Amino acid sequence: MFTKFQKSFQTGVVTSSYPYEKEPAPFRFRGRIEIDNERCKQCNICVDVCPTGAYTWIEQDGKRYLQLSHAKCVFCGICEEMCSYKAIAITNSFELAATHKEDLLTKAGFDTKESVEALGKKLNEKIFSVFKRSLHVREVDAGSCNGCEWEFVALYNSPVHDLQRFGIDVVASPRHADCLLVTGPPTRNLETALIKTYHATPEPKMVIALGACAGSGGIFSNCYATKNGIDNVIPVDIYIPGCPPRPQAIIYGFLLALDRVRK
Amino acid sequence: MGTSRQDYLDTLTSRFYGTVTITKSFLENEIYISTSKEKLIDICSYINSTFQASLSAMICNDERSLNKYFKIYYVFSLPEEDTFLIVNIPVSEQEPVFPSITPKIPAAHWYEREIKDMFGLEPVGHPDPYTLVLHGNFPDNTYPLRKDFDVQTRLPHLESKLPFKRVEGEGVFEIPVGPIHAGIIEPGHFRFSAVGDSILYLDAKLFYTHKGTEKIFETMPYTKALFLAERICGVCAASHATGYCQAIEKVAGVGIPPRAKFIRTILLELERLYNHIGDIGNICAGAAFHLGSAHGFRIREYLQLLNETITGNRYLRGMITIGGVRFDINNDLKKYIVTLLTDIKKDFKELTDIMFASSSLMDRLETTGRLPAETARGLGVVGVAARASGIGRDARVNHPYAAYREVDFDVPVFYNDGDVYARVRVRVDEVYQSIYIIEQCFDKMSEGSIKTSVKELPPYRQALSYVESPRGENIYWIMTAPDNRLFRYKVRSPSFCNWPAIPYTIPGNIVPDFPLINKSFELCYSCTDL
Fold first, then answer.
1. What region holds the 4Fe-4S ferredoxin-type domain (chain A) (predicted)?
2. What is the interface pTM, i.e. ipTM, of the complex?
């Protein structure tokens, strides 16, 4: 018994202080991608090498621009590596979640007037006003590779991220949930289960699409066994890009989600 | 044993004179043995029983455009010798049947069902020939891996009910679980037949996460397919990436720089570390020992942050590339890694000491979910589960790759009770071995380049690739197509071999022990379902 207490006391508090304090991702982390249209020579190499077809060309005012969808991107970094003109820069910003898929184009990320820290402080307040003290989440794996699941496990079970400090909890049944967190392209074999789960969740409810697969089908899109994104099966309120999104990126998505519901 | 590769072949040719054709591949440890449907069962059971070679994989390939036949390859791995015997038979479209070897070699049973679903070839004599992958919601005569099936085909969604085996009798009731689970885990459906709390029978239905991965491989240029390989599974990403890169490097005939080999080995061991420590935490959670799970997840989190620092991704994605690795590990990073691992070794030792001194936890772990060595061998179980049942197979030793020839390590196999506790102990010991391997890699690796370039792939070349992932032996089989594409890329994950063993470990246990047993195997669904 004594050794158990000793171990816990020696370990101390390990919980991260994100989002109240900034916690930059490691230097090599591949997050938001920025395109410098001035430098781009339209050589098309990024379009050719991208494994998910996240790059497209758009025409605006007679000019051709390169556009990237963060919903499709798997953050492999091959575009930056191949671009000879340094027109593509991968930053280590991970706060990418958005309420509309269009917001994930070219410049992803929610254009907040308030800083994230302020959003964080407001979080408890929001949960209180919308869902009466708490937000109950049911995670639904609609065919993911297990990466997103483990990130959510890290967020929920690990004392380092400790999702419950925000009053957010994971429940065992969709009947107890306010929010579905869905991962996967989704697969054909899980489509029916996903639809049934959605209908089993009481109103008001929201759906968060977690990861590149859920956002667009990702690298598994355009295949006989998958659909190109959760939003082809059930309505989605929030998209959290990433392959998989790191736990802090999911926290950011929750912040955004709660703001959205209040509107 | 002292038997050489040639001795095995001589025995085989004299025993089956005139019915086998032996072709040596450009790779010296792969030997292709062509035969006919009629002789198949004899040859396979001879190799399996006389040579003690286990069935490592079964691969079907639609080669109708090349030689008018489907080919089925049976990959046997010789014991104590780095050699694969690959028996193969042709199957024609007009007569789409092949003899089932499952009655002789039970390890073949899922492979044959998978071939039936994906290629429409019928295993004759299979004891349980039901659908495995396609779940009945696909229209009849849909065979996705045939070459005349387009990857983008949109098929109507049929209502289907999967057949379940049930136990009937007084007081027997059924508990259906999944595919949407109460925990944060992958989807599968389990149906327990139980009396009170005791389970009589378990029927598991998987393949919910079937994403058509193998079909997508055939549509991509080999450079892009690397990123798909990394995404076969979230927590085996480094293993799958290494397996894929090794396969490409073999067919292209390219060797990678020694430094890249060491870095790959470090990454593979880091993957084993974060998985094993996380799994031990998870097993504690399954036994409601939350102190253990909190510490397990905490240490896992440090390791994943380390992964992100080294590779830019918490799951080691985007680091391993064809011809080597993308980023180097400099001296500062090396120091950081070594210091962190030293701390973790101490931290983890304290955790496991607490775990094994806790009688409430030990009561849940010991004698729970036993997998006898005989069952494990028969079903071709691999990895941690096999080693906990006393079968000392490890691809790092049996078929060395990366820098494993140059490092010294033990493969723990001595806890041969085959219960949950044995599987925990194997993991605990492997954690220390992994740290030891990483330390040796840093000592032995010299400066130098980290990448060579691979340009063109020769068409229609075949090769095997193998990696020991945290869960066991991954086997890959590649065949190239013209224009730097893949004709076929078969992925056989350890979970595919181990899933069929789980239902055998359940009867006699109580329902609340199922999650614990399942977590002690810690199998991937996505790796299996593809």
1. 31-60, 64-93
2. 0.90
